[in-house]
Amino acid sequence: MRLKLASALLALSSVAVTGCGFTPVYSNLEDSTVGSIQIDPIPGATGHALRQELVRLLRPGIPGASSGRLEVTFQETTNAFSIERQGGNVRTEALVKANYYFYTDKGALTGQTEGNASFFTAEKPMSDILARRSASERAVKDVAREIVNDLILKAKDDSAYKDPETIDKKK
User: What is the pLDDT of residues 118-134, one digit of tens each?
Assistant: First the structure.
């Protein structure tokens, strides 16, 4: 009898909770239109990591911008530099440079940013690939934070908005 009562209570509570708009705290919302800012897909594994970080950071929105579309282009490079006498690579730097274009009904906000992270080039085979990926992800997080901080500052200033037709994306 208790089992039936507990089952009925669980069923009723789950129906009541789904009707109220409840969303779990640790839900995994991967939609590009989360909130009022749409983020265009960014090609490549590093681009995907950059987009995911931007989705996470922009979920609350940007003060001063009710809605918009964010487009990001980036370039990733790695630079090896040696510290050893034998001339072997000991450290490598991952550098991510990004240009962003945020289109709103007021106009467009644009900017450039970069992030970098260095990593130890290990002697074991394939371990440098994992280290490079990790460094790229750290650099991407820096770039995403810089983009969001820049957008928050610029969105408050009406003079920062440009006409979308006059934007030169070849920089």
Answer: 777 666 666 667 777 88
* Interatomic CA distance for residues 120 and 128, integer angstroms: 8
Secondary structure class of 100 (helix, strand, coil): strand
Q: What is the DSSP string of 27-86?
A: -----TTSTTEEE----SHHHHHHHHHHHHHHTT-BTTBSSEEEEEEEEEEEEEEE-STT
Distance CA 79, CA 128 (A): 13
Torsion angle (degrees, nearest 10) of CA 70, 110, 57, 130: 90
CA triple 90-94-95, angle to 5 deg: 140
Which residues, at least 6 apart from 40, have a Cβ–Cβ distance to it below 8 Å? 32, 69, 70, 71, 72
Q: Specify the pTM.
A: 0.71
Mode of pairing for the β-strands spanning 89-103 and 68-82 = antiparallel
Locate the DSSP E strands across 67-168. 68-82, 89-103, 108-120
Which one, of 4, 65, 9, lies nearest residue 37 by Cα?
Answer: 65
Alpha-carbon span 160 to 171, nearest angstrom: 18
Q: Which residues contact 113 (CB under 8 A, 6 or more apart)?
A: 97, 98, 100, 143, 146, 147, 150
